[in-house]
Recover the amino acids of this structure.
């Protein structure tokens, strides 16, 4: 590294810039926007990171960051700090942030899961939600529609549709809506209004990281029905793919954790796999406009090891399951895979309220049973309501 570069200790000296709140890289870096009071004037800097082992600092690690300019999905210019040896998380964070911008995800505070009474009892007793493999979903054909759309516009030979048709995807989903009381959803998923709607706090992630994982194998996002927005997302991802190849051309060769050389050519091959995986994930949130009244929100767990194995080496993949085919994961299964923290694994589901369907018989008896289950399973401040929808 150039010894003349400015050196900083970002973690202890910087906080996320509130003015430029689209910085989804590391929250304790200087703001990447030029001339921002929360940033630095230099276009490159070296940051120090401490590696801690057995509660002791074992060594100091240097990272080189470079200011990069790119277009947002609305064609406004934005900036990030790109770490020289770690392009992929930066690109991934840009895509997720820009899709959230165009999808107006930040204005939704609650999501609702429509289900039968017996399923509610199981959820409360187990403190778990089930995420089912996409081919077992009743509307799995909608994922195919998303992949068909991408195959029409893809000029970069990413060829993700081939993977779908070879049934080599590994997506697990559970579905919500941001419609608090919907007759159609009560009929379809709550036993013709004899079940319930469970309200969840969709902002719970802010402090507890419940709905998302840092490496974005776990995502919560509204389904996208508008075909113009779908096309815009596809076009934007293709734009970023081309940008990322240029950034690789401008960078130096890097090394993996085993100190093996990763050439620019190799990184470009891997970036194709990375974008293929990222597009697979996004396309799973595309759905035909005729379903728009459902206002669906999907919680997606993507178990796909191709990129991890290709870039980091197969021996590093700690998330591999047994090779048997799984048809579902529970939220606890996933939390255990993504975090070693028992506190996160044992987090209570962020339930805000439970609304009984209009056609439930013996409502007072059912309400007493739900109250007992809430109390016995340590759920606090959960409101119980009865739907006001006429049936």
């Amino acid at each position: 590294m150039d010894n003349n570069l400015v050196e900083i200790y970002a973690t202890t000296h910087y906080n996320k810039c509130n003015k430029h709140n689209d910085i989804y890289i590391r929250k304790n870096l200087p703001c990447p926007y030029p001339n921002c009071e929360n940033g630095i004037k230099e276009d490159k800097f070296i940051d120090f990171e401490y590696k801690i082992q057995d509660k002791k600092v074992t060594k100091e690690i240097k990272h080189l960051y470079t200011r990069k300019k790119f277009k947002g999905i609305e064609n406004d210019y934005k900036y990030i700090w790109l770490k020289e040896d770690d392009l992929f998380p930066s690109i991934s964070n840009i895509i997720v942030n820009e899709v959230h911008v165009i999808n107006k995800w930040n204005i939704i505070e609650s999501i609702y899961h429509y289900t039968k009474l017996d399923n509610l009892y199981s959820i409360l007793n187990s403190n778990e939600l089930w995420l089912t493999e996409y081919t077992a979903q009743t509307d799995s054909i909608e994922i195919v529609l998303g992949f068909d759309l991408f195959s029409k516009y893809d000029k970069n030979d990413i060829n993700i549709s081939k993977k779908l048709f070879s049934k080599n995807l590994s997506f697990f989903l559970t579905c919500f809506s941001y419609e608090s009381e919907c007759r159609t959803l009560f009929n379809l998923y709550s036993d013709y209004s004899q079940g319930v709607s469970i309200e969840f706090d969709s902002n719970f992630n802010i402090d507890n990281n419940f709905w998302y994982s840092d490496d974005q194998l776990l995502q919560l996002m509204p389904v996208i029905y508008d075909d113009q927005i779908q096309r815009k997302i596809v076009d934007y991802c293709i734009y970023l793919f081309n940008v990322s190849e240029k950034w690789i051309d401008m960078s130096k060769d890097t090394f993996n954790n085993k100190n093996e050389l990763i050439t620019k050519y190799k990184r470009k091959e891997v970036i194709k796999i990375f974008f293929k995986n990222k597009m697979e994930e996004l396309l799973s949130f595309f759905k035909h406009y005729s379903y728009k009244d459902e206002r669906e929100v999907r919680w997606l767990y993507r178990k796909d090891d191709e990129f991890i194995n290709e870039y980091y080496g197969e021996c590093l993949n700690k998330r591999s399951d047994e090779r048997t085919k799984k048809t579902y994961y529970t939220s606890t299964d996933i939390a255990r895979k993504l975090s070693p923290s028992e506190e996160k694994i044992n987090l209570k589901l962020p339930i805000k309220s439970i609304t009984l369907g209009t056609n439930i018989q013996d409502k007072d008896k059912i309400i007493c049973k739900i109250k007992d289950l809430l109390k016995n399973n340590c759920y606090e401040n959960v409101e119980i309501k009865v739907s006001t929808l006429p049936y």
Notes: Residues 227-250 form the longest helix (24 residues). The chain has two domains: 1-84, 87-386. The two ends are 70 Å apart (CA to CA).
